[in-house]
Design a protein that fits this description.
With 221 residues, the protein is mainly beta. It has 1 helix and 11 strands; from the N terminus they run H-E-E-E-E-E-E-E-E-E-E-E.
Length: 221
């Protein structure tokens, strides 16, 4: 036993120590995993041509100048839309045209007791500029431009009537949402003023304006 202790002391003095047990060898620290880069998110781009359909309801006011009578034309609208948007930063510039069948009509008693006064329109179109703010897939916008449509006026039972196509103006606003890369939906309000019809047979100028609320679906090419 004494010889073993003397041998161990000699080996230690010479710097020769027994090999460490494999379990005692320090293991290297594991390398951290490389971070996975998340896919880059791209905001919706509103630039491009589009076409779609729209439908809604309109109600308005029509005034006969010969006695101050007022009628309240109202009815459904249905038609098509085409347009183009250009996005610059968060601002969207656009131009849009639509053409609708318009079933707005109204009848009331003439103010001077001369029977009935009736006003109606069969169709309505608009060509407007749009200015929107792109909040990714949402875009609130204001719009305004030209409106055109027909105005019909008559005094039922008398055979007196007038019919003309008028050019006027429109203004309003709305909200559009892109629910896929190509499909969008919108809701909007427009005020339309077609001026007045000079109904010579009625002996009156007949003013016409209409408020429109409608929804639409568009496909962006």
């Amino acid at each position: 036993m004494k010889k073993i202790l003397i041998l161990a002391t000699a080996l230690a003095g010479l710097g020769l120590t027994p090999v460490a047990n494999a379990a005692d060898v320090a293991r290297p620290a594991p390398h951290a995993a490389y971070p996975v880069k998340a896919p880059e998110y791209r905001a919706y781009d509103w630039t491009g041509f589009y076409a779609g359909i729209n439908g809604g309801y309109g109600w308005g006011n029509s005034r006969y100048s010969f006695d101050g009578s007022n009628t309240s034309p109202a009815g459904a609208l249905l038609g098509g839309t085409i347009g183009y948007n250009y996005q610059w930063g968060s601002t969207v510039f656009g131009v849009e045209s639509d053409f609708d069948w318009n079933n707005a009509k109204g009848t009331s008693a003439c103010a001077l007791g001369a029977g009935l006064c009736r006003t109606s329109t069969d169709w309505l179109g608009t060509t407007r500029l749009r200015l929107g703010y792109a909040a990714d897939r949402f875009m609130p916008y204001v719009t305004g431009g030209a409106a055109y449509g027909n105005i019909k006026a008559n005094l039922p039972g008398t055979g007196l009537s007038g019919d003309t196509t008028k050019l006027g103006w429109t203004a309003g606003g709305g909200l559009e949402y892109a629910f896929t890369p190509n499909w969008t939906v919108k809701a909007e309000y427009l005020h339309v003023d077609l001026g007045k019809l000079n109904c010579a047979a009625c002996g009156s100028n007949v003013k016409f304006n209409e408020n429109i609320v409608r929804a639409g679906v568009n496909y962006k090419f």
